[in-house]
């Protein structure tokens, strides 16, 4: 650093590095000072206008009465109002038309499907899985294997009043040998081997004890009773031998049988209202298996 300041009149601080790099001592420009003071004014304004200063019991509320949640709710209301106006015609049609009429109107079907997904997630997916893909012990809705029926009116009825299928428990009526035989016959039906002589004993039990009365002699099931189809590879519960034996021994919703399988589809007419039930019926019908 030089001892003497080679630039005495320039207003530098006298700090000089590397021969000629020096620190100047100028006041900041006027525009900068104005912005600086304006900043202070804004801080005071903000502190008064918005909730800002912590207090022992919370914080100051601000002159504007603004909160993030209030703004969120207002925006949400605006959005809902916009939606209600934009889709008033479709919503009206869902209210007034029957599910069959809705199904005949492709635009309306698209609309019902698009507006059902959140509803399905909230009310149905816990049991039936995301997109109706099914869960252990809850039927798949996204296929064309139905307990009660896949036409849109039957789906609608399933939602309106709920469904409870009943199958008696055979644990006390049949010996465990017979339960094993009829189980093997049921599994053979699902594999298309029902006619094989190897399963004659099981077929005999099936036809004599009453299984055929609900599931039909060929195992094609009976939708009016919600009696599952047995002659396909889709299992309502499970196709494992032990699980099929359990279904037969303990029944389904069998009265007085503590270990029976429970299979109750709740009614939704009151919980959701008719319009939402119709919307969901169209959605379920669209999942792939609707007839
Ligand atoms: C608490 C669990 C549960 C909830 C929630 C539930 N379901 Fe179900 N659902 C079932 C069960 C169990 C069955 C089978 C009833 C039976 O075995 O007969 C069923 C059956 C059905 C059927 C008839 C299927 C067929 O093969 O015929 C439809 C359609 C259906 N549910 C749609 C829905 C929709 C849509 C929702 C949402 C609004 C819903 N479910 C909510 C448990 C539930
Ligand atoms: C009163 C009518 C009725 C009779 C009788 C009956 N079932 Fe069922 N069965 C049902 C119903 C209803 C279901 C479906 C329950 C459900 O899904 O909620 C069912 C379900 C089943 C299932 C489960 C199918 C699957 O996909 O997981 C099997 C297996 C079965 N029955 C076998 C039999 C056999 C074997 C007999 C005779 C020993 C029999 N059932 C007698 C009504 C009956």
Structure description:
The chain is mainly α. The protein folds into 3 domains: 1-49, no CATH class; 90-164 and 267-286, Orthogonal Bundle (Cytochrome Bc1 Complex, Chain D, domain 2), CATH 1.10.760.10; 176-262, Cytochrome c-like domain (Cytochrome Bc1 Complex, Chain D, domain 2, Orthogonal Bundle), CATH 1.10.760.10. The protein has helices at residues 30-49, 68-86, 88-96, 99-103, 106-114, 117-123, 125-128, 152-161, 176-190, 200-209, 211-215, 241-250, 269-272, 274-286, and strands at 12-17, 21-24, 54-55, 58-59, 163-164, 264-265. The strands form 3 sheets. The protein has a two-stranded antiparallel ribbon with strand order 1-2. Strand 1 (12-17) and strand 2 (21-24) form a beta hairpin. The longest helix has 20 residues, at 30-49. The model has no long low-confidence stretch (mean pLDDT 93). One heme C binds at residues 123-124, 126-128, 138-139, 141, 146-149, 155, 158-159, 163, 165, 226, 263-266, 268, 280, 284. One heme C binds at residues 147, 165-168, 170, 182, 186, 206, 209-211, 213-215, 225-228, 230, 235-237, 244, 247-248, 252, 263.
